[in-house]
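Example 241, ligand zinc ion.
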Amino acid sequence: MKIKNYYSPNADRKKRSINSIKIIIIHYTGMQSERESIIRLCSPKTKVSSHFLINQNGKVYRFVQDNQIAWHAGKSCWGKYKNLNKNSIGIELVNKGHQFGYTNFKKNQLLSLIKICKILVKKYKIKKRNIIGHSDIAPLRKIDPGEKFPWKQLSKKNIGIWHSSKSSLLRKFRRIKISSKEDKIKFVKNLKKIGYCFPINNKSFFVKIVKAFQRHYRKEVINGFLDKECLIIAENLSKKL
Ligand SMILES: [Zn+2]
């Protein structure tokens, strides 16, 4: 596939072993324009970068080589991995984001994303459960790529995981309160199995993790409230792992 190579200084100088590449993290740029985003990801002042950026027409840019650590994840955690820059490839999708006018991701943009992911999965044997969003690994700080990102559609291409519960059935359990503490414990256990990290027992933290989960797997209502539909989805997902 055609890739336009740019250079970003925002990466570790030291090369990494390609065996350390385990995760793909999807972002949106969250800026007014594509041009502005590219400048930001390549300017030495910003200290942020990504391996790839895909614009809305599907054009792909590379800023950092795979064997270098790009600075895109920040403080983050997924399963046994912490501070994920060292273990991941970061892909930015051009989108104004929640702050400047969040739009649907474009068809050609997604087609290019699928192509890149397939190449990376094959090259580095990345598990589909480890293709995730920035909000999944940093739920306290981040909401990208957001609820418009089509995880369900991509899971059909083996990118990311999705549940197999019928949506017509699930719908009945939306906003239905869970009845017991055991259910909540089960939910947390399932989320941990999926990869979400719960470092401290703090109520606002829990709400944000539920929101991150909803943004990814139950985008119709993102309220941080653990309902029965979320419970069933998490249970179903964890059974696939
Ligand atoms: Zn991000």
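Summary: The longest strand covers residues 23-28.
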